[in-house]
Amino acid sequence: MRIEPRQHLLETWKATVQSSWRDGAWHWGGRDGSNSISDAEQLLCILLPATQVGPFGLDRPNATADAMLEALRPLGDEKTIPLNLVRIATEYFTRYVDNDRPVFSGGSYYKPDEGAKLTEAQQSRDIVDSFAISVTLSLATIGFVRIFRQSVTRMGLRRELRQLERLASTRLTAAMVGLLRSFSTHVFEADDDPGQILLQTINKAGLPSKTVVNQFRSVLQETIASFNEVLIGSGQTEDLESANALFECGWSWGIVKDAPAIPLEYKSSGREKESTAAGTQDEPAEEIGPQPDGVAENKPYLYFTVVAVDAIEDLFSERTRVLGLLNEEQQRLSRALQLRWDLTLTYWATVATFGGGPAWPLEDPPWQTTDGLRSEYYTLLVTSIVVKDLVRKRGSDTRLARIGSVLADLANEARVTRKHRPGDSGIKLHAPGLRVSLEGSLEDSPDEKTNAVWFVGEFASLLLQRCIAIAGLLSDVEERAVLLRLADRVWDHLARRRLVETDHRKLWDQPTLVFDDLPEYDKPSWYYTERVVAGLVSAANLLSEEPLVNDRVVVRAFDLLYEAEHLYDMELMRGSADASLEVMDVLTEIRAKLERARAIARTRPGAASALVNWVLMELDGLEAVRHSESTAI
Prior knowledge:
SCO2524-like, mainly alpha, globular, three-stranded antiparallel β-sheet
């Protein structure tokens, strides 16, 4: 892999601080202004590597690496950097609270239709993107505080940390509630327009529609039955009993209309108790404020489904479990979200690979949604869900490689790995990106003239993340190499899109440097930069793992080792160790290398073979000397 994630993450850290930290204060906002999503993305550009990549840790001041300190030098030294991050995070979590209720509005990210204008009420509506990014940020913050607190002794500082953890925990609970109320199950008859489109998508064998409907319901019968377990939030349905009923599930763009409020049963959190002047006390119960009415249509959106699925996965990650980041109430909410996560992954993976024939529906891009929209962007989003399902079910290399081939085709179609020409339709995937109309927001507001629109322009960064994710799952060395080469080419594209000649250089995104006739920007997009950082974090974690082991190389390493050990034993039998001090030193080194080679032969067979090759050369040298001496006599 040529990406060098460590170096690029350090560059991004340095650029983020240079762009955001001025005159001793953190300045929020980028190209799209300041809102609950953009500001979280801006902060995660620092916190994601700091909490998910071991060498980038900042929460143990005495163990912080010099390279990390140098990149973040404007924030101070190893002690003041984490303290400043704590205060910046506290500012974020207090900034997006209104009357004791966490705010999850899209703000300046909402866009109107051309020539129209959005009202303040529309811009203030909660959106799934904010719920999802808040889950990621809150978990990162709580984990950071937990570890940093172990190095803090001053009571005043510990109170600051306790306050930040409470703020983050409250926002986390509210975000989880929002995700539960944004889940959607869209049921329709096979004869309806959505049903006809779905059947057209999955019926690659040209079977009668009734047969396909029966097959579809049969494959998903456990999923259909599981909807009876969806007891809180949105997503309940009784319309799936009909033998002709089809459905889709996932997340709408916001809280679904008529979604019921979720009762919260606060219990002791089990978190650390703090000593105060008044004694020892438990954390007070979290209050997330009133739960707003939903306005989003009861229909899943692919983009918001992928965003939600990614965030929910953080709730049951190893780090979350090991650090105990969820209190009892959040664990209850997490179980409800995991059920929806499982149902969503099963549904979309089934649809994408339906039929078991030579070609999957996913392999026939562009993907068409049930409302008739087609785009390669939708294909990329579906691959994201299918990959997670394959991770869960430990899918075979063959299936993973097929997804990799789809990603390679998408990279070509989007002109990421292929030279573009003016007018190429693939350029629109990058700018302005996928246009998502947020339906349902006008039904209760007759005075409003337009729906809000959401633009999604993360195609190349999402492509990088999925290439790395699949590469990390493959056990076949050659297939992994193919995906990593594709990831390198996608990175080459992304690296060319960094801002230059501004105070925000090395941040993203400047698409005009790659594609002609696109707008030029002088401010960073934290939306895009955070997603590139997430890709670099994935690459860094992949490179921190042990390399793949090829069984053929293991066999060859042991074959060489057996020969080398036998030749070494022959030398000892000949008394070579008594010949001279120089020969004794050589044999001692040979013995050490043989022991090392045997120890690593199964995990690093290539390195073991290299050690054995050196041993064989040295032993052959001793044999050559002995032969030369015998010939001279």
